[in-house]
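Encode chain A's predicted structure.
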Amino acid sequence: MKNWFGTLGRHRLLKLLSLLLAIALWFAVSGEERTETTLNMALELINLHQHLMVTSEVPPALQVRVVGPRSIINNLSQTRLTEPMDLANYKSGRHTFYLGPNSFALPRGVQVIRIQPNPINLTLAATITQTLPIKPIIENNPPQGYQVVSVQTRPAKVTVKGPVPEMSNLKSISSLPIDLSNLKESTIIATDLDFKNLHLSLKKPVPILADIQIAPKTLTRTLSGVPVLTEPQLAKVSPAQVTLTIKGPWPQVQDLKAENLKARVDTRNLAPGRHRLNLAVELPGGVSLVRSRPTQVTVTIDKSS
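Encoded structure for chain A:
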């Protein structure tokens, strides 16, 4: 015993105390009540070659059933656990990864009794990158009286990475559907790309904006009963009312009534008698005259005027 104690060298008492503490801790743990639980471990794929990608479904987490000392199990249950899966040196194709009790770096005294899912099947595919135009997808029409002038995206093109079989026939990337049912004016809205069920990703993430140009439709209307006014001399007019056909922006023209329009004849410097005069029509801004029926009216000025 004396020779053994001498082999400890310097700090013999400190080393001996550490050994005794380790032995006491081992007895404490081994004698502690054991419990069983399921640990959720996030699966982390590492060292995947830059020209490969996973095209199969990857389980978001592993359910690992373990048994061990209660204090250690409780601590593990409150810790975010990850399980790395090293994909270095793997080529394209289908690969199966079998997991066992020794696959996990768990504290001593903890035993793995079940792993789900197991095995893990992953399909790796070779990838290429392409720069493709974005195709904006619109749904529904603007409200009544409005129309789409143009829809463009910013950027107009994106560089996409994906498996060779999926990328080979791809000519464009669609946007998510853009609803126009409430748009009455031009606007820019944020959207995104619709990769559908394809295994695609942007080489460099960028915000996708849709520049939507909306304009009123052109509406043509015919309004009857527009009164003819004489200025500055009062006179009798025949016919006293005319019919005007006008056109302009739908929302504006739709709400116009005959009393909102003005048809005038200029009676300045006219002598008493009958005169055949051209009509002058005053219209709101943006509205134009298509035709007037009639285009001339007969004005009678009394001698007393």
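The chain is about 15% helix and 50% strand.
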